[in-house]
């Protein structure tokens, strides 16, 4: 039986090569997208799933509430750990850790120095009780209990002690930050499974001492640093609610008086371990990688789903369209004793063969796609993921689901034929089935249409963002940050002198971050005007007098600060308006702050965008290096290069030479302001590329389906075309006749797609503070694009049909 | 008695009116009979044959087949009944184009769950009997009309039915080919197979032991 089915199936597939090909290609495109996206989703959802009792592990985080909105911090104030240890029942383990890395590691014995090691934490032994590491040497139960101990990962051992066997490394010394000697007491393996706990070096927290902690992090209830974090593990069967309650109580008990005044508050949250990977409020520990985002994954999954659906629709449409051709076989089989069930299985089997073929094709396609999109995806995603049992089972399930989805309806339709009517050649293509096909085609084109509109609009928005004047000069500006640990002014001055000697550099400024950047520095300030009191969060921009020239910041009134360290504000006009001034001139001379720390506003500058155009312009002030004695904020050099870009390479080389002479130990990492601005829109550009692909594929699949239907219709209507032609219809008339049917469908799809797309894109645009218009011409253009594509596809085929010699077609009928 | 039709009516609704396709048909067929149905085009011959073959419904009357009352049976039972006892031969042969002669012959057996070796033997038997061993790997399109109908008859016979229904089996054949098929039917009938055929040719009708005449869906009484 099976063999018989298989034979018929293969011969049928072969006989209808074009349709089979359309089906397989359409499905395999959808499937490849699904496989790639599935791999991405699988990858991101399998982080930190392997920890024993991982569902009992939480990170404690802070949320600050205020009138201006809520702010999130992945850290907690340091006393919280101790409070939890003593007060709480239901908590099995409390492990605080600090993520401030030392800036220098030295292996004195071998005379090796390593700068700015990454993935280092200060923690205590409980960390290793919460998380089970594989110990190569040392004992996870007692380690890190004393000061001056460190546990290294296998990789770190290789790096710090090259050529020494790991068992000899235990007991050896490292020196941190020139002065702190630390003994290696354990070696662990990094987690082999996917994990966000990427730490490689664990220094005992007691090494810092209370004083160290106080200096580095602060040790009171009111200072929160994201570097001071806390993991806890609950007891078995312990409820979360009472612990949450305890955290609330602690927050209330230690509430700052000022917070009360300004109606600000703090909430401690228990963040489950499996939330770590996705929660962008708190982030992970790997700052090099943009965080996985559930909304992005969900929209990707939707894209995959749509593409799969489109492929399935082709299948359904083409198979039901061909029903008449299969009808005879069905009738015969039925009179010979086949039951309906057997027929359904037969047709499902045929579909299965095709989906199998599509799956094989898509495995190749997706391995290619994975390589193509390597830039878009985290490093760990590759074809190798498909070896995991979960994904294999997933693919098989998908295969079965697809078979069912695309094969079941045609099988039902086909097997429903009554043998007698089939054999009497009575089945006219039933009206109801024809209309389902129409609905599905409309659905296909609607999706393709929505994709086209979205692509156009996202492209327009990106163009708008990138070409929008930021309000300051962004072209031909490079900046370089001096090493974090080399803060001496002398070095900076030497570097500046070196820069000024380079002829390609027109202006050099010293300051903090550029006017627009990802990192911000802000503080709360109070402005008193008689009885009125205005409290505001003020972003600070640090720069000397040249800074304003480099970036061409426009001064609306007043002047720049008199020198680098004098305490004077140059505020932006947003802040000026917030303070209640209409004219810039009115703000000059007013003072911000109270008592000893109140300083004058000496200038007002024009607004500019401090970040991407997604965010609103915030109150801001340009100030000098006020606390140069304790901590200089001037750590970045900003340079104006000539307008001729061809000279920049040479300029950069000269700058690097100067750098190497002043900071020989550090890497030279210059940036261009243009690139920085571009990077703000990385997410949008990724979205755009993705959309372009999705659109292309959606159009491709839909048009293949359309082509199939057109072929089918024209074949069915060959006789009619012949007769009409003999009766004198012109080519154009014939074409019109044949196209009309399909163009109406495309038109309906457009009518449905427009409001859908409008609604979706309007939502998307809400994320941006500054947005392009949802212009009508986008919709019109996309409609025309779709129409032209459909018309091209249709007329290729109808031309052939209309051109055919009528005598021939009539004869063969 | 193999089957009995009592007061069978069949009609379709057309423009609010009943158009009768069969009117008050009464027929008893004994085992081993060879019946020819005749009548002008459009008189309802095919319709009657399809009703007998249970491929088509009727609206009124009783139909008993081997002591089962067909009109009360469910679709599935009915399918089982004709699957087991009835073989069809069609004017247009109705072979499956995608299968070879051998596979076409094998197909009814597949639906009846015969074992592989059994099927092989039965198909070989039929090929032998109809002298088409040499054609077994050809597709229907590669055969002449007569040969195709030969295969059609062979296929109808292979599952050893009690009753063969043939709707103008020679309609597409030349007279010599037609004679051959008729001779075959006669032989089969001798072996005990009941046959009901529809035909337009007086000569072919003579092969039957009884002739039923239809006119406008009604049976002409005098025949015999
Ligand atoms: N589903 C139907 N709806 C309406 N009329 C039908 C239907 N099926 C058959 N008829 C009509 O019933 C009549 C009998 O048809 P049938 O096919 O039985 O004729 P026939 O005797 O086999 O003719 P022929 O010798 O040409 O094959 C015809 O007039 C036909 O038009
Ligand atoms: Mg007929």
Number of discrete helical segments of chain B: 7
- Can you list the strand order of the major beta sheet of chain B? 6-7-8-3-9-10
Any idea of the CATH topology of chain B? Rossmann fold
Coarse shape of chain A: globular
The CATH architecture of chain B would be 3-Layer(aba) Sandwich
Output the radius of gyration of chain A: 34 Å
Rg of chain B, nearest Å: 18 Å
Bound molecules: adenosine-5'-triphosphate, magnesium ion
Give me the number of helical elements of chain A: 26
Kindly name the structural category of chain B: alpha/beta
CATH homologous superfamily label of chain B = P-loop containing nucleotide triphosphate hydrolases
Q: Helicity of chain A, in percent?
A: 40-55%
Structural class based on helices, strands and sheet pairing of chain A:
alpha+beta
Q: What is the count of β-strands of chain B?
A: 10
Number of structurally distinct domains of chain B:
1
Tell me the major beta sheet of chain B.
6 strands, mixed
Mean pLDDT of chain A: 85
Low-confidence stretches of chain A: 427-432
Keywords:
heterodimer, A: 813 residues, alpha+beta, 4 domains, 13-stranded mixed β-sheet, 26 helices, 24 strands, B: alpha/beta, Rossmann fold, 6-stranded mixed β-sheet, 4-stranded antiparallel β-sheet, 10 strands, globular
Structure explained in plain terms:
The complex is a heterodimer of chains A (813) and B (224). Chain A is α+β, with helices and mostly antiparallel strands and 813 residues long. Chain A is 50% helix and 17% strand. In chain A, a hairpin with a 2-residue loop joins strand 1 and strand 2. Chain A is globular. The two termini of chain A are 34 Å apart. Chain B is globular, with a radius of gyration of 18 Å. The relative contact order of chain B is 0.20. In chain B, strands 6-7-8-3-9-10 form a six-stranded mixed beta sheet, sandwiched between helices. A four-stranded antiparallel beta sheet of chain B has the order 2-1-4-5, covered by helices on one side. Chain B has helices at residues 45-52, 75-85, 101-110, 116-129, 145-158, 175-190, 202-205, and strands at 3-14, 17-29, 34-38, 60-65, 68-69, 86-89, 163-167, 194-198, 210-215, 218-219. The longest helix of chain B has 16 residues, at 175-190. By secondary structure, chain B is of the alpha/beta class. In chain B, helix 6 links the parallel strand 7 (163-167) and strand 8. Chain B has one domain (3-220): Rossmann fold. Chain B contains seven helices and ten strands. The chains are: A alpha+beta (813), B alpha/beta (224). The interface between A and B is medium-sized, with 24 and 28 residues. Adenosine-5'-triphosphate binds at residues 12, 21, 39, 41-47 of chain B.
């Amino acid at each position: 039986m099976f063999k018989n089915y298989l034979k018929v199936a293969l011969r049928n597939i072969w006989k209808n090569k074009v349709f089979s090909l359309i089906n397989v290609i359409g499905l395999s495109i959808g499937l490849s997208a699904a496989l790639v996206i599935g791999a991405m989703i699988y990858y991101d959802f399998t982080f930190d799933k392997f920890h024993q009792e991982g569902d009992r592990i939480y990170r404690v985080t802070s949320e600050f509430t205020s009138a201006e909105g809520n702010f999130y911090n992945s850290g907690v104030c340091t006393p919280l750990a101790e409070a939890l240890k003593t007060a709480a029942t239901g908590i099995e383990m409390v492990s605080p850790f600090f993520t401030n890395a030392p800036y220098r590691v030295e292996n004195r014995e071998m005379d090796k120095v390593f700068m700015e090691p990454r993935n280092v934490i200060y923690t205590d032994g409980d960390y290793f009780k919460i998380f089970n590491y594989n110990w190569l040497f040392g004992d996870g139960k007692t380690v890190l209990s004393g000061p001056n101990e460190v546990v290294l990962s296998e990789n770190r051992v290789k790096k710090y002690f090259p050529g020494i066997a790991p068992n000899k490394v235990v007991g050896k010394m490292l020196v941190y930050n020139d002065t702190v000697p630390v003994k290696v007491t354990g070696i662990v393996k990094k987690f082999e499974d996917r994990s966000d706990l990427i730490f490689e070096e664990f220094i005992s927290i007691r090494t810092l001492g209370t004083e160290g902690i106080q200096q580095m992090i602060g040790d009171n209830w009111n200072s929160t640093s994201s570097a001071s974090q806390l993991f806890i593990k609950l007891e078995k069967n312990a409820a979360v609610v009472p612990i949450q309650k305890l955290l609330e109580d602690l927050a209330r008990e230690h509430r700052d008086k000022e917070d009360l005044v300004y109606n600000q508050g703090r909430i401690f949250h228990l963040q489950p371990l499996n939330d770590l990977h996705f929660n962008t409020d708190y982030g992970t520990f790997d700052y090099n990688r943009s965080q996985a985002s559930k909304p992005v994954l969900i929209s990707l999954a939707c894209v995959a789903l749509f593409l799969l659906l489109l492929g399935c629709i082709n299948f359904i449409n083409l198979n039901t369209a061909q029903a008449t051709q299969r009808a005879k076989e069905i009738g015969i089989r039925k009179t010979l004793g086949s039951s309906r069930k057997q027929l359904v299985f037969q047709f499902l089997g045929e579909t299965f063969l095709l989906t199998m073929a599509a799956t094989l094709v898509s495995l190749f396609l997706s391995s290619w796609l994975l390589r193509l999109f390597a830039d878009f995806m985290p490093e760990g995603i590759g074809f190798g993921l498909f070896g995991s049992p979960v994904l294999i089972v997933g693919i098989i399930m998908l295969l079965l689901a697809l078979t069912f989805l695309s094969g079941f309806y045609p099988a039902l339709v086909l097997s429903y034929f009554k043998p007698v009517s089939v054999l009497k050649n009575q089945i006219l293509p039933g009206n109801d089935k024809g209309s389902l096909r129409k609905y599905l085609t409309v659905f296909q084109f609607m999706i393709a249409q929505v994709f086209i509109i979205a692509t156009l609009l996202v492209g327009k928005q990106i163009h708008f963002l990138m070409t929008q004047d930021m309000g300051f000069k962004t072209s031909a500006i490079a900046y370089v940050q001096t090493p974090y640990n080399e803060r001496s002014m002398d070095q900076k001055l030497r570097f500046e002198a070196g820069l000024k000697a380079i002829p390609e550099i027109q202006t050099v400024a010293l300051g903090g971050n550029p006017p627009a950047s990802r990192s911000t520095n802000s503080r709360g300030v109070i402005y008193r005007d008689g009885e009125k009191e205005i409290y505001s969060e003020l972003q600070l921009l640090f720069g000397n007098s040249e800074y304003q020239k480099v970036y061409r910041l426009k001064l609306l009134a007043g002047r720049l600060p008199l020198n680098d360290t004098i305490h004077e504000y140059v505020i932006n006009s947003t802040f000026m308006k917030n303070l209640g001034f209409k004219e810039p001139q009115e703000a000059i001379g007013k003072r911000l702050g109270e008592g000893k720390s109140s300083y004058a506003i000496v200038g007002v500058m024009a607004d500019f965008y401090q970040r991407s155009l997604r965010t609103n312009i915030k109150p801001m002030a340009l100030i000098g290096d006020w606390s140069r004695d304790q901590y200089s904020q001037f750590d970045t050099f900003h340079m104006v290069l000539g307008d001729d870009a061809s000279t920049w390479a040479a300029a950069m080389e000269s700058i690097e030479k100067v750098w190497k002479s002043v900071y020989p130990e550090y890497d030279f990492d210059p940036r261009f302001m243009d690139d920085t601005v571009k990077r703000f829109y990385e997410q949008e550009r990724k979205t755009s590329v993705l959309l372009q692909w999705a659109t292309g594929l959606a159009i491709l699949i839909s048009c293949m389906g359309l082509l199939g239907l057109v072929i089918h219709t024209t074949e069915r209507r060959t006789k009619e075309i012949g007769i009409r032609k003999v009766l004198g219809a012109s080519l154009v008339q014939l074409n019109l006749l044949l196209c009309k049917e399909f163009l109406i469908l495309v038109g309906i799809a457009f009518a449905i797609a427009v409001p859908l797309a409008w609604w979706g894109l309007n939502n998307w645009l809400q994320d941006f503070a500054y947005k392009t218009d949802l212009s009508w011409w986008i919709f019109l253009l996309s409609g025309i694009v779709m129409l032209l594509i459909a018309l091209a596809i249709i007329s290729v085929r109808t031309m052939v049909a209309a051109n055919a010699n009528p005598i021939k077609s009539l004869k063969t009928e | 008695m193999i089957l009995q039709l009592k007061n069978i009516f069949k009609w379709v609704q057309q423009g609010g009116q009943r158009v009768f396709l069969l009117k008050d048909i009464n027929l008893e067929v004994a085992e081993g009979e060879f019946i020819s149905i005749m009548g002008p085009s459009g008189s309802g011959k095919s319709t009657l044959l399809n009703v007998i073959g249970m491929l088509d419904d009727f609206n009124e009357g009783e139909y008993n087949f081997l002591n089962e009352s067909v009109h009360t049976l469910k679709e599935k039972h009915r399918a089982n009944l004709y699957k087991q006892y009835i073989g069809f031969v069609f004017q247009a042969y109705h072979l499956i184009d995608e299968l070879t002669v051998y596979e076409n012959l094998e197909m009814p057996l597949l639906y009846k769950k015969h074992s592989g070796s059994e099927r092989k033997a039965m198909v070989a038997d039929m090929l032998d009997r109809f002298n088409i061993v040499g054609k077994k790997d050809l597709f229907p399109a590669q055969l002449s009309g007569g040969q195709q109908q030969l295969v059609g008859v062979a296929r109808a016979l292979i599952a050893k039915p009690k009753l063969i229904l043939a709707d103008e089996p020679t309609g597409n054949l030349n007279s010599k080919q037609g004679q051959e098929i008729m001779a075959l039917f006669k032989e089969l009938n001798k072996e005990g197979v009941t046959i009901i055929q529809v035909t337009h040719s007086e000569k072919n009708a003579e092969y039957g032991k009884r002739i039923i005449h239809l006119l406008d869906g009604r049976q002409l009484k005098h025949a015999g």
